[in-house]
Amino acid sequence: MADPLLIARGLGVRFGSFQAISDLDLSVSLGALHSVIGPNGAGKTTLFNALSGTRRPTQGEIRFRGLPITNVPACRRVHLGLSRSFQLTNIFRDLSVAENISLALQAVAGREAWAFWRARDPSRVSRDRAAELAQTVGLASRFEARAGDLSHGAQRALEIAMALSSDPKLLFLDEPLAGMGLDDVHRTKLLIRRLAPERTVVLIEHNMSVVLDISDTITVLAQGRKIAEGSPQQIRSNAEVKNAYLGSAA
Amino acid sequence: MEDLRFPNWITLAMGVTLVAMPWILPSLTLASEILVLATGALSCTLLLGSVGLLSFGQGLYFGLGAYVSAILIRDFAVGAMAATLAASVAGCLVAALAGLLIVRRQGVYFVMLTLAFAQMGFFLALAFPKLTGGENGFGNVTRTTVAFEQLPLSNPLLLYGFLALLCFGAFAFVQRIIASPFGSVLNAIRHNDSRAEALGYDVRRFKLAAITIAGGIAALSGAMNTLLLSFVPLSAIDVESSERLLIASLIGGVGSPLGAFIGAAVLSAMSDFLSPIWPRWSTIVAVLLIVTVLFLRDGLLGLGRILRRRPKDALNG
Question: Which residues of chain A are at the B interface, by a Cβ-Cβ cutoff of 8 Å?
Answer without folding.
Answer: 52, 54, 73-76, 78-79, 83-84, 86, 90-95, 99, 102-104, 106-108, 112-121, 125, 162, 165-166
